[in-house]
Write a structure and sequence with these properties.
Largest interface: A-B, 45 and 52 residues
Helix content of chain B: over 70%
Shape of chain A: globular
Largest sheet of chain A: 11 strands, mixed
Oligomer: heterodimer
CATH topology of the largest domain in chain B: MetI-like fold
Strand content of chain B: under 5%
């Protein structure tokens, strides 16, 4: 009799355990450092817009996955004409926008035409520059014609600024985003949090989460207690680097270090003497010690780079050895430039830890070869107007987070003031190259030119420091684009 | 009294006009282009120019000032460049956090400071006074963000009594909303209480040395009655002055505490608007704050008259 009681009790207990396992959590609160100014990825460049909306609220024809690969999005398949100029997309049917209206080829035409229009305010308008025509053949077929073959067209159509919006809701997307994604906006308490809820009429695989809240935590010191108290269960990229050890040793949390597309570089004003001399730039490259900079500026987590290319991307060539850390050699370069007594210059630092911390290390390293840097801290608005727009700077540290952006060195008027016809030719060839091997070869060539010519000193690839509850699965490890895709995120027990 | 009031109102209006010019000029001088900030590194110069035109940033300076100031007169505070919603809506949301927070902190600080001040003054130079004033010294010296973090680790991480930060909104219910304001209010109140306590103590000591206090004691009033009724009442003027200043500070100067507790308050809105060069938001909110400070000062002036009947006759 007693035995029966025990068995019964045990059965009841395991039943209770099973029910609680079935009722796994379906809500998630994520911490983000910067609040998006609005929620329309086609109208603003702020990375936080994409973090919240990409793949969750808005979708593009294609989508970029965790590994930077192109996957089908709203287009289930596509065909490319033999000359590489015409892309025919077959769209999913039965797709609805969050306001209940049906999605069709007309919306694709509207979105792409709007993005490439003369008066377009799309922050990545260059992605659409080669489109010459968009035709809605029937409700599920769209034909996009380009002015020539484009190697990265499908990738570009998966980027944040290329998401598909509807004509009737496009103007209101900043405040009330209407997309086709598995989540829709529930409410946005400005300055506090943005809450998304599951879109029950989603066309594809439904999300496991019912509710996802992005809470704005601007202060690194506040991020740690928020995580420890359980108020916030995930940071796609955690700001508190000093406390990372403490969190890593806590079994309640997973710490996942991933890669980003953020090439952190010491940008040089290439037209401003003495930086117009190759030997001076070579001296800078030889004088800096990447490992010390990485230790100070990214807690030792960043990967060293020798050119403007992410180590995680296909076609990466390790060029960190082109100018090894060598003070004597650096002094020789300076002598070659006729500056054996060194010189003075300014270093403008934007308000991000990697720049402010890394800048001090670079200042002391360059002092060893007689280059005296005066550090000038600037805010982003100042950086954009003084450095980026007016090119009023000598040196600056910044992370270029745009994916596959090696072409920026060939853009006329870009703030590097770098103009190398040989490099421009490679980028031009790359633009129209479709063959995969040919592309990788050209990418390698472009990287090598930059590594040797030093239009900027390449420091390290910014790490993504993912920290979340150990029971949470499906968060992105890497940031090929800055997005917190929650479509596969779920709680386990 | 009417002439006095009129004079004060004219001064207030002039202050507002002057402040509007200064604020507008400062924001104009600041380097930075809100259009470039919104469109980012990949946008072309043409696109930036297009957006500047849309935002009305290319109009002449004087015209823009008049447009903005004219709007203020009609209580139209403009639209935020970044959020693209009316500024007044943003302010309303933030005031719903900042005003209760400031009031709670002020109440806490007064509740702590006045008894401590009275206690210290009545035991001037003795051990209790030294101890209380030592504590006050500490309260002034301890950085409030550090104190806030200690509070968070103790009450949120360890004891799980309150959330570590954030604000659920008043829609979530009075208690959850209040709960999230307790720790920030304590963190804000402590240094304020320390200052206020010291001011209350020294004001009271000065009053207690006055002749009329001796007279009151001589005619046989108990010490307690003299202290609270005659002493404290007469020591209120410096205390009220400090309170007025503290309230103005608590309304918008609490950016650090707002950051530590990630509260969506006014201070953070202004800070964010400055970094994003959301000029219209900064300008309009600063004007609202100037108006609030002027109003608080007026109220403090009137409260002098309440505590000190002699001031009522004077102009």
């Amino acid at each position: 009799m007693k035995l029966w009681k025990t068995i019964l009790a045990a059965a009841a207990l395991s039943l209770a355990a099973a029910t609680s396992a079935l009722a796994a959590r379906t809500d998630l609160t994520l911490g983000i450092v910067l609040e998006p100014p609005h929620l329309d990825p086609t109208a603003g460049a702020a990375a936080a817009i994409g973090e919240v909306t990409y793949a969750n609220v808005f979708e593009g024809l294609t989508r970029i996955d965790d590994n930077g690969q192109v996957q089908p999005g709203l287009a289930e398949s596509w065909a490319v004409s033999d000359d590489g100029k015409v892309y025919t997309f077959k769209l999913h049917s039965g797709v609805k926008f969050h306001d209940g209206s049906a999605f069709s080829a007309d919306d694709v035409k509207f979105s792409l035409d709007r993005a490439r229009a003369k008066d377009s305010l799309n922050p990545q308008k260059q992605l659409f520059a080669h489109i010459t025509d968009v035709t809605a053949v029937d409700p599920t077929i769209v034909k996009v014609t380009l002015d020539g073959p484009q190697g990265s067209f499908l990738y570009n159509m998966g980027q944040v600024a290329a998401v598909i919006v509807a004509k009737r809701s496009a103007d209101g997307n900043k405040d009330k985003p209407i997309g086709t994604g598995p989540f829709k906006l529930d409410h946005w308490a400005k300055g506090s949090e943005i809450t998304l809820v599951k879109n029950t009429e989603y066309w594809g695989t439904a999300a496991a989460l019912d509710k996802a809240t992005f809470r704005i935590v601007p202060d690194a010191a506040a991020a740690v207690p928020a995580l420890l108290s359980g108020d916030i269960q995930a940071f796609a990229n955690m700001p508190a680097q000093d406390a990372l050890g403490q969190i890593q040793s806590d079994p309640r949390f997973s710490v996942v270090i991933g890669s980003t597309e953020g090439e952190t570089i010491l940008s040089i004003n290439n037209k401003k003497p003495p930086f117009d001399k190759l030997a001076v730039r070579q001296a800078l490259a030889s004088a800096i010690d990447r490992s010390a900079i990485i230790a100070a500026a990214s807690n030792g987590l960043g990967k060293p780079i020798g050119s403007h290319f992410s180590p995680g991307d296909a076609g990466y060539v390790d060029l960190t050895g082109v100018y090894p850390h060598d003070i004597a050699k650096a002094k020789e370069y300076l002598k070659e430039a006729g500056l054996e007594n060194g010189f003075s210059a300014t270093l403008k630092l934007p308000p991000v830890p990697y720049a402010r911390d890394g800048g001090q290390v670079i200042q002391s390293q360059l002092k060893e070869i007689g280059v005296n840097l005066q550090i000038i801290p600037v805010e982003w608005a100042e950086w954009l107007s003084q450095v980026f727009t007016n090119k009023d700077y000598d040196l600056t540290i910044v992370s270029h987070v745009e994916p596959n952006d090696i072409d920026i060195y060939s853009r006329p008027g870009y703030y590097f003031q770098y103009d190398n016809p040989k490099f421009n030719d490679v980028i031009k060839a790359l633009g129209t190259a479709v063959d995969k091997d040919k592309r990788l070869e050209l990418l390698g060539e472009a990287q090598k030119i930059l590594a040797h010519d030093v239009p900027a000193v390449y420091l390290f690839e910014l790490p993504k420091i993912g920290v979340w509850d150990a029971k949470l699965q499906g968060m992105w490890t890497n940031w090929p684009i800055e997005a917190d895709d929650l479509t596969k995120v779920k709680w386990t027990d | 009294m009417t002439a006095y009031l009129l004079k004060r109102l004219i001064i207030a209006a002039l202050t507002l006009v002057l402040a509007s010019m200064v604020v507008f000029a400062i924001m104009e001088v600041l380097p930075g282009d809100p259009a470039r900030l919104m469109l980012g590194l990949n946008a072309s110069a043409d696109q930036v120019e297009l957006l500047r035109n849309q935002m009305g940033l290319n109009a002449p300076l004087v015209l823009r000032y008049l447009h903005w100031a004219g709007g203020l007169l009609r209580l139209d505070f403009g639209r935020s460049y970044t959020y693209s919603v009316p500024v007044i809506d943003l302010v309303r949301e933030r005031v719903a956090v900042s005003l209760p927070l400031a009031l709670i902190a002020l109440a806490l600080s007064t509740i702590i400071a006045i008894p401590v001040g009275v206690f210290s003054a009545s035991r001037q130079g003795r051990a209790g006074d030294t101890l209380a004033m030592g504590a006050a010294q500490l309260g002034v010296a301890v950085p409030n963000f550090w104190f806030a973090l200690i509070l968070i680790y103790l009450f949120a991480v360890w004891l799980h009594l309150v959330p570590a930060g954030g604000f659920p909104g008043w829609n979530a219910g009075i208690w959850p909303a209040l709960k999230s304001l307790i720790l920030p209010a304590v963190a804000l109140a402590l240094p304020q209480a320390a200052i206020l306590g010291r001011v209350a103590r020294s004001a009271l000591i000065e009053v207690l040395n006055e002749d009329y206090i001796r007279t009151a004691r001589a005619k046989g009033l108990p010490y307690r009655a003299v202290l609270w009724r005659h002493g404290l009442r007469n020591a209120m003027i410096p205390v009220l002055t400090i309170l007025g200043l503290q309230f103005a500070f608590l309304l918008a100067g609490t950016i650090i505490i707002e950051n530590v507790f990630y509260l969506p308050g006014l201070g953070r809105l202004i800070f964010q608007a400055i970094t994003q060069r959301d000029l219209i938001v900064v300008e309009s909110i600063v004007m609202l704050l100037v108006a609030a400070v002027i109003l608080i000062n007026l109220l403090v002036d009137f409260s002098y008259a309440i505590v000190d009947p002699r001031l009522r006759g004077r102009q």
